[in-house]
Automatic annotation (TrEMBL):
Keywords: ATP-binding, Membrane, Nucleotide-binding, Transmembrane, Transmembrane helix. This is ABC transporter ATP-binding protein. The chain crosses the membrane at residues 193-211, 259-279, 291-312, 369-390, 410-430. It comes from Pseudoflavonifractor intestinihominis. InterPro entries: AAA+_ATPase, ABC1_TM_dom, ABC1_TM_sf, ABC_transporter-like_ATP-bd, ABC_transporter-like_CS, P-loop_NTPase, Type_1_exporter. One of its GO terms (molecular function) is ATP binding. Residues 178-432 form the ABC transmembrane type-1 domain. It is found in: Cell membrane. It is a multi-pass membrane protein. PROSITE patterns: ABC_TM1F, ABC_TRANSPORTER_1, ABC_TRANSPORTER_2. It comes from the Bacteria. SMART domains: AAA (SM00382). Residues 468-703 form the ABC transporter domain.
Amino acid sequence: MLKLIRYLKQVKWPILAIMLLLVVQAWCDLSLPQYTSDIVDVGIQQGGIEHAAPDQIRDETMEDLKLFMDEDSWSKVEAAYTLNDDGIWYRNKVSESALEELDDVFGMPMLMLSAMEEQGMDAATLQAMLASGQMTLEQLQAMADQALEQFGTQSDMIVEQKALLFVKEEYAAMGLDLDQIQMNYLLSTGGKMLGISLLMAAAAILVGLLASRTAAQLGMSLRGDVFKAVMSFSNAEIDKFSTASLITRSTNDIQQVQMVVVLMLRIVIYAPILGIGGIVKVATTHTGMEWIIAVAVGTALVLVALLMGLALPKFKRMQTLVDKMNLVSREILTGLPVIRAFSREKHEEKRFDLANLDLKKTQLFTNRVMTFMMPMMMLLMNGVSILIVWNGGHGIDAGTMQVGDMIAFITYTMQIVMSFLMIAMIAIFLPRASVAAERIDEVLQTKPIIRDKRKVKDNTKEQWKGVVAFEDVSFRYPDAGADVLEHITFTAQPGQTTAIIGSTGSGKSTLLNLIPRFFDVSYGRITMDGVDIRDLSQHKLHELLGYVPQKGVLFSGDIESNLKFGGANITDQAMEEAAEIAQAKEFIDSKPDGYHTPIAQGGTNVSGGQKQRLSIARAIAKNPRVFLFDDSFSALDYKTDVVLRRALNEKVKDATVIIVAQRISTILHADQIVVLDEGRIAGIGTHEELMKTCPTYQEIARSQLSAAELGGEGA
């Protein structure tokens, strides 16, 4: 998976934007619990009064509070408040830190003044005692400190609550509407929460959009690179992976990676930000329940590790079983006519059911393991909630915690656990995607055996003639124990037809496939106009060749697109001339749409002979220097075969023609016939020469032609 991360460099700017948006989203998500806590504690319990430092206060009340302030505290109050002519002190606009200092300044005086009033002593009496010397300010401060010691660790909270209650009573005494103050606070805080929620939603939507586009870009790049890699593969690499596996890797595997990339960008990056932010927020609540977070996180990690240890091996096996499923399905679908002809439907159904059952069992195991994930995580979250409420309830009862703080702590804890839950959810997809990524990377890292040299000799000749020469060529397939072809030496000249014939398995098609470098020779060399074909680029080599495979291959589109497959420079005239030479014009003209007649995938809507003629016309339209026919006339009737070869000889007088054939009648008039027997040359010459000198050729000829036909040929 890490090897494919390099593809994300192509979209680094969208990823950076996603990370910034996720930070914004996490900030919003982490801010909401504090506002919820403020609504409960300040909006409901405190009537919307946030600070012990009042927004406004009567002059006489301020004078009473002044008795409990030292000079430094009073100077701070004077700097922060302005006395109006109506006898009301109004608080100026101050910073948040200055406001917190004012809360501390007003807290103790308000507590002391409230305590005196509860004991029936008014401020005037206290002033008189201070003026007469019956009590000093030091004694008054000592009394306050003694009173706070009785509350112990709860002293700060007691001071805050008493001060807020004092402010509330002062507002009531001034005739202010307390209900309106509370409503204003609730509306203000609720409005902030709404704004933050909208911002969070906008960030989440943008993250989803950018993540989807980024993953789609990654998928497109991967598919393109895998396609390019496969296009460069020789037959050896194709056989190594198998066609079914390459299709799975190009589609299903890349889809798995693309889906996980979306989840990674949306969740895997977001979860740590949310989790770390939640831990920081929990640490600022000072509830003393941080140990609960450690227990929850530790349990979640153990749970995820246990489930992944069970599921990961099965995920690896699952992808192999998908390959097998595709292979069986492909074989059955492509071989359906043969299956029906031999009444093997039941056997193939059993084979398919076996592959299907293996895949189902593996999927069921992984799904069953992963179904434990969500219930266990939900059990963990609910257990943690109960633990927090239990401990928090005792704290509220003891006066060391407010209800809103406990609510905020629960929310932050759930966010932390939820971040691990999100990672656990990703863990469900990650193992399979990791296996898929390894399979994709295996294709991308595979270097084709046949590749161009750094310095090629494409421009060594201005005009290529098409002289193909085999110079002591031997070949064996990769990992094979013996050579398929041994010491092959002959030359195919322009303007001549060179035929290759032999019994089944003698190596005819293998020999032909060496020319376009579908395989490379093991020993010796093949030259084009004296230049080793390995010194040419594959593009240049294929540009000189016109190849017609043993089995005609057509592509979805229409007849015109197939005939012009050799290049955009092929004109309509050249296309029509090629069709006429290949004896395809008659059936093309009989179609209502002519050259625009649709061709289905694989050419399934045309007959075998028509497909073969279109394949031959495609090669002719390209006008190459060398024609390679791999038993390409086998699907044609004798009459069409003769007419086509006669027209072909007239058209390609200057080109080299190499024909692999099974039928003697196809190659009777060839300028040179190469006879293969078990990978070796048994004879080279014309038909007449070989009938006199080559027993192998004589045996093939007598098995296909009558004595009269052979005699007619002068044998």
